[in-house]
From TrEMBL:
[4Fe-4S] cluster 4 binds at residues 87, 107, 110, 113. It holds the Pfam family Fer4_11. Keywords: 4Fe-4S, Iron, Iron-sulfur, Metal-binding, Repeat. [4Fe-4S] cluster 3 binds at residues 75, 78, 83, 117. It comes from Neobacillus mesonae. [4Fe-4S] cluster 2 binds at residues 23, 141, 144, 156. This is 4Fe-4S ferredoxin. GO terms for molecular function: 4 iron, 4 sulfur cluster binding; metal ion binding. Residues 4-34, 66-97, 98-127 form the 4Fe-4S ferredoxin-type domain. One of its GO terms (biological process) is cellular respiration. InterPro entries: 4Fe4S_Fe-S-bd, 4Fe4S_Fe_S_CS, FDH_Electron_Transfer_Unit, Formate_DH_Fe-S_su.
Amino acid sequence: MTKYVKYVDVTKCDGCRACMVACKNWNDLPAEPTDFLGSVQSHPKTTADTWNVLQYIEHENSKGGLDYLFRHSSCFHCTDAACEKVCPENAISYTKFGSVVIDQDKCVGCGYCVQNCPFEVISLKEYKDKHGKEYRKAHKCTMCTDRLDQGMQPACVTTCHTGAMEFGSREAMIQKAEKRVREIKGRYPNAMVYNPPGVGGTHTIYVLAERPSVYGLPENPKVPTSAVLWKDYAQPIGKAMIGATTMAVVGAFVANKLFSKKAEHEDGGEGHE
């Protein structure tokens, strides 16, 4: 089955923030007041009500000049997602497009996904039920999976006027990214494709002008060992143990009933002698 990728070329981004507006509009996300950050960046990072953020970075390049770097920041939709591994309710899953989504009906707001995301793009939102009781739900970018189901592209991609973002098959987008890096190496010696293997690759890949750390990204993100142990070992073993325990309980119950009936029958027989 074809997997899809959102391609982001930061060297073409002009910081217009149209992607943020489109995301808010399509997903009906509320406005979120923030403190003034002293730059064009409106939010310090993604939140439960702001699923993508335009980051603004002032960077001194290798030639001593000052570069103004922009980066569209949202969920990476990892192929091997830590959030999916640590969710105890199986509320996080992969779609046929490769996007990673959260089932709000199953989410219990435990926060494990927030704690284990290597890119820190998931947040919890506070709610109150009709009785005033507080509860939480995890939220993040869905890669507009509802739009993909209708044959459309993510809202952020369709509104990008500089061509900094595209959406297509994984193979085509990776080839495009690699070609673009070769084209800009003269201007940006540290240019690279950011598609971290430690999380199985991502479904949002970047053409970066500088090293990942310049953009606040981990150089080599990996799924936490604890998440791997939990999902791939502890949970299956735990389920097997629960199954074995259940069978043991059922077996004991049945055996107890049988022995009880046998004892009653023997006692009854003795009483007739």
